[in-house]
Protein 1
Amino acid sequence: MKFDFNKLKEINDLDFEQVAVWPFEVKTVVVLFVIILSLVGGYYGLVKSKLPLLESAQNKEADLKLTFQAKYRIAVNLKAYEEQLTNLQNDFSSMLKSLPTSNETPGLLDDITLVGTSAGLTFRLLNWQREIPKEFYSELPIEMEVTGGYHDFGQFASEIAGLPRIVTVHDFEVTQEENTLKLQVQAKTYRAAVDNETSTSVSKGGAK
């Protein structure tokens, strides 16, 4: 059937009570108009208000996928993670054993004195300073003042680093004094905040 556009000119003179006898062309245009209005109304009335919910659901789906992928990788590598955890616990336990206990700190000064005199140094000052509490450990500073030569200082620092208990040296200051050199330095050692409880928890963790 041929579509006659001239029939559309009659649309303003049509009676809505005589829809049945309207020309085919007019009926087609009216139907298309009604369909378009229905689609637009449906979009703004039903669909548009749901779009934020759809976007939120899509974002949640993406997050869940990332979470699943992360957990899947952990599950696949669980054995390797457990081995790494065991190694870390063993390393931590070894480090704790390198920290002096309360009973060992007095003897640590004797060890430092022996190291210094063996390196050819003369001690003028060797004193504990005030303990500095930290979250998981305590810092024990040691104030030192010795005299000797450059090579003696180097040997001293090297042998301190080789002590069985952790001792670090900080704030070097070397000055000339007549025919010798004076070294002022602060050494630090560290002690676990609660020696027995920390060691026990580490041992239990390693045994799991």
Protein 2
Amino acid sequence: MKHNAQVVIVGSGLVGCSAAYYLCKHGIQPIVLEKKEIGHGGSSRNAGGVRQSARDPRELPMAMYAVENIWPGLSEELGIDIEYRQKGNLRLAKTSEHMTILEKTALKCQSLGLAMTMLSGEETRKKNPFISDEVIGSSWCPTDGHANPLLTTLGFYKKAREMGARFITGEEVVSLRKERGRISGVVTKCNVYGAEQVIVASGFESRAILNTVGIDIPMRKKLLESLVTEEMPYMFDEMLGVATSDFYGHQTKHGSFVFGGDAGFGNYYDFQKETMSTSLSPSVICRGVLRYFPMLSEMKVVRAWAGWKDESADGIPVIGPIGEVPGLYAACGFSGHGFGIAPAAGMELANLIAGGKSVLDLRELRYNRFLPKK
């Protein structure tokens, strides 16, 4: 009986941990299987943006719902300060091409009800006087923010455990099991776990796991890298980004800066079994940061890390049931911007399993959008 549960969740990132918590709120105590440590993947390897701006219209409603209904009260609900700050998001532009990108994004978001405006270079520097004179404008979303990814993930983990969820680390899932066409469990290297429903939320590794029951979600892995600096005096609160996504980041509650970006070494790291960051990567990311914030040139980087993002074929996640295998659910392909919507994704998976109905319309995020049109 210890290897059986109504629900087994594969993956202990923010989606897996939040799904476990919300299932427990419905009275369902799941088993969560993790190959390594809790939150080992992208949930502990991102810059913490809780962003609605510059999202695909298909996932924007989930991002807006999370910002309005989940993030503001999450520290109190989980009993831990997740360092959530709703202080806005500036996406910066240095060229007319950058401004065109941001203007199109702003118009798209405004049409869906998100408050987002365009600022001139002067208006941008009024909000943040540390920004370089090279910046000619920006987009501004006042309801965006940031939080601490690791504390958020561990907060859901701790609360779910208190409510009866079982987390088992060191369990590498090798396949899913079906009986009479329905999902019936999960096979690891050491054990077999029986389940009526299974959630696969393992980042890029979800693809191989789902392949074992004939389901393929087209996605690839791409390396993203982040760094954290020494503590600095308070400078600004808002989350930062740029039109071309060269870098993104914020100043933390403790004064250090967390910046992320693509250093361009992904092809090299594709040959590595483990993600890693070298002395080359932070310098590349920092050169990009300094074009926007030259006064940070003397600041010391104290740590850097790298992680894979599970980039789907169309750049938005798959969240919801897999119709061909009743009882199977997937949450993957978040494409490097899953942190802000992960708690809402976990909540909706729990709602579907417990009551058969989600709060939001998830049809645009279903797996079947990749199937041939009839």
Protein 3
Amino acid sequence: MVPLRSVTFRMALVLWFLGVISAGMVTVRRGEPAVLQCDADPGDTLRSVIWKLGLYKSSCVISYKIEENNTKTSYSSCSPRMRSDHLSLTINHTEISDEGTYACEVVNDENTIFRNFSLQVLAPPSTFLKLNSNGFLECGAIGGNPPAEISWIPHSVNINTTKLEDPDRTWSVVSTIRRSGINGTCVVSHPMFVKPWKAAITLSGGYKLLFDNILRLIATVIFTVLFIAFLLYLKIKYQNIPGEQKNEDP
């Protein structure tokens, strides 16, 4: 019986030759150029280099071919920001939509060599921590790729976290502690951050801040009502003062 480890290794070699196993992950920050280098060695008989792109909801092809008379022709159905030059593919001003798989196919007189890449475009999120209208601590990481991870110190069973994909394919993550009058520190982790982002809100005396807000609201309402009542009183008072009587001749 052939050992299972040996069979697995042989299958891996076959998959690698067919280009099924990725040659690696390439990461780049959004807006910066990305260069994918097909490290295959075609020797002196290079005939063509074909890049097959599997992107988000789309696919395209870029080819570079050497004809029999040594003239070079190229073809592209991809974005004009993408350019093939010999064994490399350059993407200018990368966007989140450029994420996907990039398969390189190098053809020479003897065989065809395959290499696969995965491209990830990173985008840093904008962060915030606030006390929302319900008096809950609310922490957010908006417009990041990949989506940020949010945690709280101390941890609470009342945490509600939502993750939404924005129209530009970035992610917005919002985490809320659904309990009023508590202190908390929000921690946001993301590959674009050198260290996690942290922010804290301290509510002195527990519910004191929320209670003070309610008192200020009540005082404002009472003052407004009294002021309106005073204006109405003055209006009624001046309306009831009799006008000056005219002197009649005897």
